[in-house]
Each structure stands twice: as C-alpha cells, then as structure tokens.
Amino acid sequence: MNQDASQPSGTPPGTGTGAQPTGEGRPVWGEQGQQAGKATGAGGPGAPPSARSAWATGGVTFAGVLLLVNGILNVLQGIAGIAKDEVYALVDDYIYRINLTGWGWILVVLGVVLAVTGAFILKGAEWARLTGIVLASLSIIAQFMFLPYAALWGLIMIALDFFVIWALAVYKPDAAQA
C-alpha cells in the first residue's frame, strides 16, 4: 500500500496531523482565531482591532487623502480666480465681498498648505493631525465666505472638512496599535 510520506503510520489518509506544529494533535489556532495557549497581550496576534479603532484608522487615512485632494482643488480654484475674474459669478450685495483675485491668492496659499499637511498625515507625522484640524477649520471658514461665488461646491467642501476634523480628532494612535 502506498502511503504519503507526510502522514504518520497508522493515520488514515486525509486526516494527517503532520501539519500541526504543536505535535500534540491540537490545532495551533483556537476557535476565536487566537493562537492556542497564548494570552492576547503575550505577543500573539491577539484580538482584532475594535470597530471604532478601525474606523478611526481608516478615517485618518481618508482624511489625509481628502486634505491632499482638497488642497490641490483649492489651488486650482484659486488659480481660476486669479487668472480670470469672470469664472465666478459676481456678487454685489455680500458682506464678505472681496476682490476675486484676492480670494484666488487666499485659496492658492491655503491649498498648498492643505496639500502638504495631507501628505504628512499620510506619512504618519503626529504634528500633522493637529495642523490638519486647524487647516480644515480655516478651510470651512474660507469656503463659507466663498459660498456666493460657488454655493454647491462650497457646501460640499464644508461637509468634507467636517469629516476631516472628526477623523483627525477621534484618532488615537495608541488605541489603534493595541
């Protein structure tokens, strides 16, 4: 009878225990997906991260991408305001009225700083989280003041900035790694 070399003699084919590294016939992994005989904090894989920390970790990555893209879009929006004042609708009776060329420069500078901060958030720089919160807050104010010129776009950007602030504020790096 031809028997597979990986099967111990006397073990029926297809039920081999040769793949069990413990040698005791017990599986290495328990029913919860943890290594048998190891405590959660003893260097083993442990329990999966909580849903809250997974959301926060993914949220920070998404916030970094949003800041980066938001910055690039602000630069493009600012360049449009600088190059041609006719790109945006002119508003006569607006309390925060400012020359569109001035708005263009504000958006270009804010956009460059947003994009750089977003890139550093993606690289994991700790200082970039607080800076991102401050810049997203400034972006909300700038977009609010720019609402008469591009209302729908301003509302979308304000909503995205709120998400960025939330994601950066709730992220706890120690909780996500534990």
From TrEMBL:
Compositional bias ranges of the Low complexity kind: 1-23, 30-39
The DUF7144 domain, residue ranges: 60-172
Record key words, sorted: Membrane, Transmembrane, Transmembrane helix
Disordered: annotated span: 1-51
Transmembrane spans: 60-83, 103-122, 127-146, 152-171
Protein name: DUF7144 domain-containing protein
Taxonomic superkingdom: Bacteria
The keyword Zinc belongs to this UniProt entry's keyword annotation: no
UniProt xrefs under InterPro entries: DUF7144
